[in-house]
């Protein structure tokens, strides 16, 4: 289906559209007028991770085509917790914890939308905290039925697994629907976007706007993004892939994308880069060893969007040095252990990897060594009792964990 709207054509062609409400009518509106659309982000951590990247890119394309993109920060709804896709009730955060998280996350939105032009960051605590509960229930509580809420997959799946679903979480759905009503009334916002797990909440908001504001509103969801093996996008053995630099280095962020499965490269180029479609088509045709070039471009482009060009350039340069030119780059994670005597086994490979912060735990380091996942100076580590005695005459050790992480131990 070809749309009149450039925005809808762009996101459809790139694979962002999974479900929609009356997209044909939305197309008629959006092709003639500038609109406002939003996506909500609950602030449960001090950084977003790559699982939020598809939503940030949706907002980017809305902004790119001249529409008003609203990042709705869930300062109010995070106090409750979204039950969508969860097996258990979320930990309840304090307002102080949430405010601290907001301060740490706000800057990331400016990398995707123009906050000096069409982009806005709004916190739903500003209006949810002022609601009178009795008045709210009288006006909105009768407009959304439990019968319908029980049909939503996010609720049904929890109940099917006999997992508890609290009244607190039921209220979350009502409050999210109210958010859309509020934004529609005060910001003329007619479009809510989100992940497929938000479909039921979006439908409730669309329905509530029709009943309360007597206006039409629209919703679009994106598909759940998983790796080709079915695993959750952005989750690795060493933890989540965070967007904030203080949570994961730009080099490690770059390497995550550089090492994605071959089968994921084309899809990720469409979703997570701003490369022209015709260039992505060419890159997607690369096979065998040549696909590594496409992976390098994917890693560079995503890092440039999330961390900036300077960080992307540096990550690319370091990667070229250590993997292609076999140069030990001084910008790699490194520790200096002067006058350290490796010959008496007081400092082991476990100590070195732990100090370099390449692996989370010593038990994980042992597992990696056992499965041939650790190299010293590009040779498989095979020391007894985790000893580094055989390297005692050297001034520098290059320690590699798999294909992704490298650190330098300096002994001079």
In short:
The protein has 17 helices and 13 strands. It is of the alpha/beta class and 412 residues long.
What do you see in this structure?
The protein is an alpha/beta fold and 412 residues long. The protein has 3 domains: 6-222, HUPs (Rossmann fold, 3-Layer(aba) Sandwich), CATH 3.40.50.620; 249-323, Tyrosyl-Transfer RNA Synthetase (Orthogonal Bundle), CATH 1.10.240.10; 334-410, RNA-binding S4 domain (Structural Genomics Hypothetical 15.5 Kd Protein In mrcA-pckA Intergenic Region, Chain A). Helix content is 43%, strand content 13%. The protein has a 6-stranded mixed β-sheet, with helices on both faces. The chain has a 5-stranded mixed β-sheet with strand order 9-13-12-10-11. A two-stranded antiparallel sheet has the order 7-8. Helix 10 links the parallel strand 5 (189-195) and strand 6 (218-222). The termini are far apart. The relative contact order is 0.10. The mean pLDDT is 86.
